[in-house]
Design a protein that fits this description.
Layout (H helix, E strand, L loop, with lengths): L10 E4 L18 H28 L9 H20 L2 H4 L11 E5 L43 H12 L7 H5 L2 H16 L32 E9 L2 E8 L5 H14 L4 E11 L2 E3 L3 H12 L1 H12 L6 E10 L2 E9 L6 H18 L4 E4 L12 H6 L2 E10 L1 H6 L5 H18 L5 E2 L3 H12 L6 H4 L2 E8 L4 E11 L11 H10 L11 H26 L3 H8 L13
Parallel strand pairs: 11-12
Antiparallel strand pairs: 1-2, 3-4, 5-8, 5-10, 6-8, 6-9, 7-8, 10-13, 12-13
């Protein structure tokens, strides 16, 4: 039943109907803005030049600089005044909303009388979107909760949407033009629906802080994806209990990891060892000959030069400290793999800045060096690579546990001998036959991805972070099981990127590793890496047990099958 809606009164004027008076901040100036800026700009540099010249003469004549005559005092006052003006007013024209050239875009908003946030409590009817089909009604047996309704656009926003659809206002510029990230996302979303003719119903828009992602996490947002977060554990690791947040849409994953945690806890817990902690970046440079490339290689690997290179590198950050440089020559090209500590940050930006400092320094002694790229894939980032498997990248962690024989039988529903045999034939032999690179495990990437999504890590780095060697061995005359995971390249951080978003920050807080550790820099990120390895250990233990006991298909049919009639789902 439709309700009568009263249109909201808004003072909005359009150029095609009547001429609107636009009040700008620059109207308060006695001269036009460009003339005023030019005057102060000229004053500033003229006075600065006069003072520098005067002080140079004083230095030559050994006259104290603090002894000032009248002209110098006046010049300093003019310099300060012009600097204040330029700081406060220069660029007004940049921040003022530019008037659009086309008549259809010449929309000037004089006043918005709303007293609630944009897009809320609007009383204007929602315009019909051409080309977007209504969703088909679901069967009566299926009860679906309606998605949070997106408020209809205001008259002001409607004109901007039309301009975006027409291409006269770039979609990427909405945040800077409007100064309201939530409103920009809403307008972009509506424009996208009209351009594509496809509905975004079901993709939430409300309830997210779009300011928090501006300039760092995501560009041109139109909403956000909801991923359920489950909790596995607690996991007893190094004498502490951790409840593990896992963001996933795969049924059985959290339940299986939780069973592995239970088996580990009942057997006394797991322990972890950090073998290495260093992020890498490997630029590629080119010379005119292989001989010159080799000369730089020898220079970089000479211990006498390490202190100088390290000092140049370390200037980039108070946390980034160079650990090593590994070089490889390919013809007349040289690849230099820098490795450094990065505190509690994952550290890609940190190591890149340090590498850039070193490259600039090397240009002095090797002017014929041509820098092809700051990254030459010898790092290697977001790609499966033997160099990460062998040398490590990020945090290299080993996690182990001894599972008692009766726990294997009662909790994991299998036996030690079956697990050892399956691990040898599946994780070791089977992976070798497949030519696996770092994939000598059952499903390490499942757990790594889920924890990464929950804690704001870079999901793409799941590739190298999931390098894992799972080992199982019968001990104590075959009664108990020793299980371990060796993960040489876990790339995590507790500051920067997605870690500062509200949901991800809450998951980090649950683990006790939120933000930077001021007392022991880097310890939070190292603890998170240990938790990732411990979670993988639990997941490996449970899945291998399910396969050994023949329960894999049965459990997935029970927990990973939807009862929803998929024939009613169609593209709108």
């Amino acid at each position: 039943m439709e309700q009568t809606r009263k249109p909201m009164k808004m003072k909005v004027k359009f150029a095609e109907n009547e001429e609107a008076k636009v009040f700008k901040a620059s109207d308060a100036l006695p001269l036009p803005l460009y003339l005023t800026n030019a005057v102060f700009f000229t004053l500033f540099f003229s006075v600065a030049y006069f003072l520098l010249t005067s002080w140079r003469e004083k230095i030559r004549s050994h006259t104290p600089l603090h002894v000032l005559n009248l002209s110098e005092i006046v010049s300093i006052l003019v310099l300060v005044a012009s600097f204040v003006y330029l700081l406060g007013f220069f660029g007004i024209d940049f921040v003022q909303t530019p008037s659009l050239k086309d008549e259809e875009e010449d929309i000037i908003v004089q006043e918005d009388a709303r007293i609630v946030p944009c897009g809320q409590a609007l009383e204007c009817p929602r315009p019909q979107i051409a080309g977007i089909a209504s969703p088909k009604p679901a069967q009566k047996a299926i009860v679906e909760k309606p998605a949070m309704e997106t408020p209809p656009p205001t008259a002001e926003d409607e004109e901007i949407i039309k301009a975006v659809v027409a291409g006269t206002i770039p979609s990427y510029s909405l945040e800077s033009k409007l100064g309201d990230c939530k409103r920009a996302a809403s307008i972009r979303r509506e424009a996208l629906q009209r351009i594509t003719g496809k509905s975004l119903e079901g993709l939430p828009l409300e309830g997210f802080d779009y300011e928090s992602i501006l300039g760092q996490c995501c560009e041109m947002p139109v909403g956000y994806v909801t991923i359920p977060v489950g909790i596995a554990g607690p996991l007893m690791l190094d004498g502490r209990e951790f409840s593990i947040p896992m963001a996933t849409t795969e049924g059985c994953l959290v339940a299986s990891t939780n069973r592995g945690c239970k088996a580990i806890n009942l057997s006394g817990g797991a322990s972890s060892v950090l073998l290495k902690d260093g992020m890498t970046r490997a630029p590629v440079v080119r010379f005119n000959s292989a001989k010159r490339a080799a000369e730089l290689k020898f220079y970089m690997e000479d211990p006498e030069n390490y202190e100088t290179i390290s000092m140049v590198f370390n200037k980039s950050s108070r946390f980034g400290r160079l650990q090593s440089v590994q070089c490889a020559v390919a013809g007349k090209n040289l690849y230099m793999r820098f490795c450094c500590s990065t505190g509690d940050a994952m550290g890609m930006n940190m190591v890149s800045k340090g590498v850039q400092n070193v490259l600039d320094f090397l240009q002095n002694d090797f002017p014929d060096m041509d820098v092809i790229g700051i990254s030459g894939n010898y790092c290697s980032d977001k790609k499966p690579a033997a160099v990460n498997w062998i040398e490590g990248r990020g945090k290299s962690v080993v996690c182990e546990a001894v599972i008692q024989g009766d726990i294997v039988t009662k909790v994991l529903k299998t036996n030690v001998a079956a697990l050892v045999e399956l691990n040898m034939l599946k994780n070791l032999t089977g992976s070798a036959i497949a030519g696996a690179l770092g994939g000598f495990n059952a499903h390490a990437s499942n757990i790594v991805s889920a924890v990464y999504l929950a804690t704001g890590q870079d999901p793409a780095q799941n590739i190298e972070s999931s390098h894992c060697l799972t080992m199982m061995e019968a001990i104590n005359d075959g009664k108990d099981l020793h299980v371990s995971v060796t993960m040489p390249s876990i790339e995590v951080g507790t500051v920067g990127g997605g870690t500062q978003l509200a949901s991800q920050s809450a998951c980090l807080n649950l683990l006790g590793v939120k933000g930077a550790n001021r007392e022991a820099p880097g310890s939070n990120a190292r603890q998170l890496a240990a938790v990732v390895a411990g979670s993988v250990l639990a997941g490996e233990l449970s899945l291998m047990s399910a396969i050994a006991a023949g329960q894999l298909v049965k459990s997935h049919m029970k927990y990973n099958r939807s009862s929803k009639d998929v024939t009613t789902v169609s593209s709108a």
